[in-house]
Queue: 3 jobs
Job 1
Amino acid sequence: MTELSLNWQHQYLCVNHVRLHYVTQGTGDLVILLHGFPEFWYSWRFQIPVLARHFKVVVPDLRGYNDSEKPAHGYDLETLSQDVVGLIQELGYERAHLVGHDCGGLIAWHVAARFPHLVQHLAVLNTPHPYRAGQELWQQLEQFWRNWPLLVCHIPGLAEYWLGQNLQGFLQDLFQRYSIRKAAFSAETLQLYQAALEKAGAIAAVLKSYRHLCSPQQWWQLLQQHKEAIASPTLVLWGADDPLAPPRLAEGMEQWIHAPWRLKWLPECGHWAQQEVPGLVNRELLGFLRA
């Protein structure tokens, strides 16, 4: 990746009253890649140079993450989605191909539902449709009890202190616990994720964002808002052995997508799809986005 990354550019834009850092490469139609929790743009490192052969690829750090601004407010799904809308507009595009994973996947679903005219293609990785996610609220809460790293993140004060004292162990456990191909997360990779979260204000902002997206109030709003069908062509990629977002969350997806769509199971893959099976993800994204 070192040679390929020489063409990456780090830039900043002020959108929706927040300063976002992003990495970009390539020219052509706009592709925006949205990362999940607790990652940053680097989670898409294997996709950027491959997609950049055909597109202008833009990979932001979500507000609160890594080198993006960390305001006190604005971590609800609507505001995060407005950040993406602002990014598309400030970059001078009328629409974009939108790709999201985990929390970034929820944002991508939401943007496609609220602003269909802005989304040319939608691709989501290991992320249920928001309405399905809202239906699963209580089952997810039960799962949090079985997955203590995520449960801790929901306790204000304690989470900030605990992560500040145990960040290395937390990240190692999180990526290993929810992956199948564990070799994807080398010591060097984990150090980069740790460094991103050690930046001033990052832990507090990232936890605030995570709590907002996983709060009962947010899920209730999703149940009220996400009754409109997705109108953009959609690709869903899902690790067949994801222990965090189990495959049953993909059931019934056809009722929320009124456009050509496809669900592709990724064999022997856990939650971190684009990092565990990057070659397969790259082929699927290229075939879909270039169609």
Note: The longest helix spans residues 158-177.
Job 2
Amino acid sequence: MRIEVICTGDEVLSGKIINTNFSYISQKLGDVGLSVQRETTVGDDREDLLESFLLAGQRADAVIVNGGLGPTVDDLSQEIAAKAAGVGLELHEGWMARMEEMFRRRSRPMPPTNRKQAILPVGAEMIDNPIGTACGFAIDIGKARFFFTPGVPRELYRMLEEQIIPRLLTRSGKQTAILLKRFHSYGLGESHVDMMLNGVEDMVPDGSVKLGFRAHYPQLETKLTVRGADMNDVRAKLEPVAREVRRRLGNFILAEDDETLEGVVLSQLAQRQGSLAVVEMFTSGQIAARLGCLPGAEKVLRRGTVAHQVSEIYGAIGLTEAPPASQITPAIAEVVATAARRQSRTTHALAVLVDLDEGADRFDFGGTICLAVATDTEVTSRRSRIVGGRDWVFFGAIEMGLDCLRRFLQGLPVRERIDFEKTDNKP
């Protein structure tokens, strides 16, 4: 089945808004074995929109249109869809009543302009939007079935996953029993993991298991898309392949499916009724921020200390002596983690100290990361050198800190070589 996507809006065409909606649509379709053949971005111009709809209707079997369903004068999707389909417009009484009820629940009058969002092409199938005022709709234009979706990302995501993808799968004739299994890892590059997992798809000879990757530094998402006659068939196919992926990737798997690294860390601490203090250099408090917004974090995360200099950290955590004048070392990180844990009276402390290169940001700009995890009976540390620019060091330090804490809590080795670090033969 040939699928196209049309993204609308002057703000998208001009680059004022980065078009993340298209990448989300394409990835989600790919996860279920559907692929996008063409993407078109069109501004809020009636003639351009009409031409794009008519041309796509000649080429494609299905078209997803994103944007243009709002209440303002530049939201043109319903009007142009009706013209392209050769039909008129009519008020959808059901959606109008839904909108009025939404505004009533919020104790707000509904602006007259919102009525426009309930006016759809005659004969169109209304597609529900449970979290917004812009309903979607589907209509045939040429030989293609068009699916119109709102531009607000969270509304698009829910509509796509719950309603549009099932409709596309039905039209494509593909097996509708599909499961996406995801493994999140840190420390291994995409090509490395591809080689490590060579042949896992062949464990299911009928070709119903597809291996894929999505790299978003510093993490890598490894995906298994599995199809079957029903969910029991899907799970039976998935189980041995997933087990083999876990065996091959080992300690580098930090979470699965909807789990996150910070969520795993928080869960590990909560299970042992633990508490945590975090000390950060250069990372702007982002380690504490990733933990602190999670449910239950208020019972675990006791204190976060952020500074740019080791001397400032020493003062903040109650160390009266001056820090060594030498470069940051794992030993200094251990001293900091131990003092932070003692001062905050927590069961655990994580210290992530970063010594940056001098000069302007550049491709070979790097940083030396020394981190330590301390408890009342144990302290362990790690040193790493990351090169690739300030952002590369920034995000790498955050991820390495959280991942080393995860490893410590799970009884795994904190020191394990990763693909992103540079060896300089220092301890």
Note: Residues 279 and 341 are 10 Å apart (CA to CA).
Job 3
Amino acid sequence: MKKFIFFRNDRLGDFIILTHIILSIKKKYKDSHISVLCSPLNYNLIRKYKIIDKVYVYNKKSFLLKRFFLFKEIIRNSYFASFAVDGKSFSNLCNFFIKAKYKLGLVYNYKILNFWFSKPNFLYNYFTFDNIQNFTSKNNLKKIEHLPQKFSNLARYIGIKSKVTNKYYFKYDLKEHIKFKKFYKDKIKNKYVLIHLDEKWVDIDTINYHLYQNLVKLQKTIKKKIIITSYNNNFQYFLNLKKDLFKNKKDNKIILVTNSNLFFFERLIKHSFCSISCHSGFLVQVAGSNSSKVIDIIHKNDFNWYSSWKPKNTNYKVVFKSSLKNLFPINQIFSDLSSKIKSFWNNSLF
């Protein structure tokens, strides 16, 4: 039996990128055993994956003794291959001490005062890894470096063939699917556009006062319902939006869904005409599993960074919320959204 361990001690979307590689391992080695070191943020997602045999949860806020016992449990096993790809210190520490035939890693490069550094450092990389892929930090990135391709390159080193155009793996939850079908029948009844609101919307110019009006205008333009999703959102722009929606609750063309679980959220994304966010990592990456259309609202100077993360198996478009110097007004952003939605419209049966 071949054992593999993936270090993914970060966020939801970051794990989903790896799922097609894990699935390819399971297909090639039927009796393989796959462990994942995750964070409290992505544990509830990862534990649902039947292709994962063991899940370790690292919480940096845990007592030192608890973290030591976790470290000890991880390194007592022998692995065929380890994938240290999250850049976290605890992950790199475990990876250094574990026994593995192949140690594969992602090295994060960054610049300070015109000097280049890497995490892990050069000596660690030289003495520990059998194969590495380099990835430049956000502040120093000058061109697109497609991260899913780098992960596929690491897998190919040990004979795992998994193309970046392969769908990511996300098994929907049957109970949530049934719940979604009822919600769709009762509330939606037709094609809709999903817009996910979170902290990345805060810096949009005048959003606190003009979000609702722009949503109404967009809905009238596309002539389809809009589903608004959000999770634990207490920003002023969102509180104002809820008040506006309550005042106009008889108009059911804009529907608010708050604090849904991930599996219901995935169903909303899957069945939308397109999904819009200011680069919600989960939304963008789960679209790589269900072929959803995605519109990302980002700053222009972040284009290379977010393009480095996007799945290559989905229909992905970008709307800018700023130039290299200035923020765009909210009405311009929504006008651009309307145009991008129509471009999807013209290539499908809307």
Note: The chain has a mean pLDDT of 94.
